[in-house]
Design goal:
The structure is a single chain. With 185 residues, this protein is an alpha/beta fold. The chain has a single domain (5-183), classed as P-loop containing nucleotide triphosphate hydrolases (Rossmann fold, 3-Layer(aba) Sandwich), CATH 3.40.50. Helix content is 43%, strand content 23%. The chain has helices at 16-26, 56-64, 83-90, 101-110, 124-133, 139-154, 168-183, and strands at 5-9, 30-32, 35-37, 51-53, 68-74, 77-82, 94-98, 115-120, 161-164. The chain is globular, with a radius of gyration of 16 Å. The protein binds guanosine-5'-monophosphate. The site of guanosine-5'-monophosphate has 13 residues, from strand 5 and strand 6. Residues 35, 39, 70, 72, 74, 76, 79-81, 98-100, 103 line the site of guanosine-5'-monophosphate.
């Protein structure tokens, strides 16, 4: 059995974070990659656990040194996957990165063996319902997220697997099974 590197992407509100967290709780042979970011930590976020929080200078230095497998800028700041961290973890376990489609496709160019997994909502209506249920989103923010979803969906043909997150346990099993399948190749 080999260790594999996976990217899990999908529109916000689809529940990919919850799926990945639960998978990691249940499987000892899979860990989540920790990204670097220039955004400030939110309440409860721990440096080195949720993200490595870097200054703009440090982030730029790491880009120059080629330490990112991929990096991108989002509204809230810059984000990158540290190559050294992923390489070390892969020696012992399979690694999951939860990043957007742009980051996922860039990472695949750098690491062709990487497996791209897209998590889909059962429908657009259901995604709107989940986003509205968060209560933290303004109608404008929801509109923006939906526009972003159309862009993300346009990259779907380049992904290796698609999982529909309708029933949580079913989606979790599909994710876990595909990892087993890839590990045994
Ligand atoms: P947040 O600040 O809410 O944790 O994440 C904001 C966005 O950054 C999310 O869309 C998340 O997927 C993306 N993100 C997190 N880590 C990385 C990374 O290492 N690389 C890229 N390209 N995007 C990331």
């Amino acid at each position: 059995m080999r260790n594999v590197l996976l990217v899990v992407s999908g529109p916000s509100g689809v529940g990919k974070g919850t799926l990945v967290k639960e998978l990691i709780t249940r499987r000892e042979d899979v860990v989540e990659s920790v990204s670097c970011t220039t955004r400030a930590p939110r309440a409860g976020e721990v440096d080195g656990k949720h993200y490595f929080f870097l200054s703009e200078e440090e982030f730029s230095r790491r880009i120059e040194e080629g330490d990112f497998l991929e990096y991108d800028e989002h509204m809230s700041g810059k984000y990158g996957t540290p190559r050294s961290f992923v390489k070390e973890k892969l020696k012992e376990k399979s690694v999951i990165m939860e990043i957007d489609v742009v980051g996922g496709l860039n990472a695949k160019k750098e690491y062709p063996g990487l497996i791209l997994v897209f998590i889909m909502p059962p429908s657009k209506e259901e995604l709107v319902r989940r986003l509205t249920g968060r209560n933290s989103e303004t109608p404008e923010a929801i509109e923006k997220r939906l526009a972003r979803m159309d862009f993300e969906l346009s990259k779907l043909p380049e992904y290796d697997y698609v999982i529909v997150n309708d029933d949580f346990e079913t989606a979790l099993k599909e994710l876990s099974d595909l990892i087993d399948n890839e590990k045994s190749k």
